[in-house]
Write a structure and sequence with these properties.
The chain is α/β, with parallel strands linked by helices. 30% of the residues lie in helices and 20% in strands.
């Protein structure tokens, strides 16, 4: 398999904002200019794909499915590490139809040798994929959000599946309903995060593991622009258009920014990280993974 980063994305042909399951979703704003918005969404998705490829990535594409507009957010489809995919279970009925579609996608990837195992959650547990379970390569652990969408009991399932520490972070607001909307570990060991999105216990867990010098706090405007919902490739960060204040914070730390206009998807409560799922993450060298299995 290629050493190039491999991402899953979805054709946005069936994307729309037709219901409201988070505070960002604005069906009325979409409906008023639906044709124009869809054209903008196609252009935005293409621009994001282009940015990933130009930074050395490769992209697998899931076909659009009419009636499943949020299929464009495959980060919620599974947690993937070391060739193992733990399939998501969605809390809201509006998204539950995605489960069968993504199951077939992951089974197909397994048949091709891209994945080694496709694993189901225990019954009765909600867990919405990498949106609520973010791998921190620098610390060798998962940060896992729970509360609005994923069950606290999902933390045990993630740890049993992958064999790595899972640090639970309770989310304090439906506005920041997935961890990826408010928390982003970076390749240099820093963490970009939005403190008001977390309970006091969650903030204590972050502070215990991330030194103050490595914490980059997003301001209200920066988090509201969905810039914490970003894709990090080494020293490059792909994100929605950033306020100048955040750009200065990140470039001052030595990161380069690739900004993409993702406004149509922000109308649904998602941006760069939501629109992608990294399929090739490894916790340790390939030989060690094979030996462990």
């Amino acid at each position: 398999m290629s050493d190039r980063p491999l991402f899953l994305m979805t054709d946005p042909a069936a994307f729309e904002v037709s219901y409201r399951i988070n505070p960002w979703m604005r069906p009325e704003a979409w409906k008023a200019h639906a044709g124009e918005r869809l054209a903008e969404a196609r252009a935005a998705s293409s621009a994001l794909r282009r940015a990933l490829v130009e930074l050395g990535g490769q992209v697998e594409t899931v076909g659009a499915v009419r009636g499943l507009p949020d299929l464009v957010f495959p980060a919620n489809a599974a947690v993937v590490l070391d060739g193992r995919a733990l399939l998501a279970r969605f809390r809201h009925p509006e998204r539950q139809g995605e489960e069968a579609v993504f199951r077939e996608v992951f089974c197909r990837l397994k048949r091709r040798g891209v994945l080694r195992a496709v694993i189901d959650l225990p019954e009765g547990i909600f867990q919405e994929g990498a949106g609520d379970a973010i791998w921190d390569a620098e610390r060798g652990l998962f940060w896992a959000g729970f509360g609005p969408r994923s069950s606290e009991s999902s933390l045990v399932a993630i740890e049993r599946t992958f064999g790595h520490e899972v640090v639970g972070l309770e989310l304090a607001s439906d506005r920041y309903y997935h961890l990826d909307t408010c928390f982003c570990p970076l390749a240099g060991g820093e963490v970009l995060y939005y403190p008001p999105a977390f309970t006091s216990d969650a903030l204590a867990a972050i502070h215990a593991r991330v030194p103050e010098a490595a914490r980059i706090e997003a301001a209200d405007e920066e988090a509201g622009a969905f810039c914490v919902n970003a894709v990090n490739l080494d020293r490059q960060i792909v994100m929605a258009r950033a306020p100048t204040s955040l750009a200065a914070k990140l470039t001052g730390r030595g990161y380069g920014l690739r900004e993409v206009d993702l406004a149509p998807f922000i109308l649904s409560g998602g941006a760069a990280y939501c629109m992608t799922l990294r399929l090739d993450r490894k916790s340790r060298p390939e030989r060690a993974i094979l030996a462990a299995e």
